[in-house]
Specification:
single chain, alpha+beta, globular, GMP Synthetase, Chain A, domain 3, 3-stranded mixed sheet
Length: about 100
């Protein structure tokens, strides 16, 4: 995964959980090739009512933080489904989640 894209995406906070989407484990891929950013991400549930807002915020974060990009594509995917075990250790601690 491209570290520059991940840094930009860490600015995007899940509005319901208050944790950034990278630490939540919502980013499945983040690639920057030939000035094109491509991200595949999921949401904590397919029924998330704020999904379009989170997706748009991810796109805007990349446009703001990665000035060399010429195109940004953020796709929502549902496979594999998100699980709490996908969170970073920091996010698990913040959420009070223990494996």
């Amino acid at each position: 995964m491209d570290e520059q894209l991940l840094e930009a995406l860490r600015e995007v906070i899940d509005p319901e959980l208050g944790i950034n989407i990278v630490d939540l484990g919502l980013i499945y891929s983040a690639e920057l090739e030939e000035r094109q950013a491509r991200v595949s991400m999921t949401l904590t549930t397919p029924a998330c009512p704020l999904g379009p807002e989170v997706q748009a915020a991810a796109e805007m974060a990349i446009w703001r933080q990665v000035p060399e990009v010429e195109s940004v594509e953020v796709r929502l995917v549902w496979s594999p489904p998100w699980r709490p075990a996908m969170m970073s250790e920091e996010a698990k601690d913040e959420m009070g989640w223990w494996d």
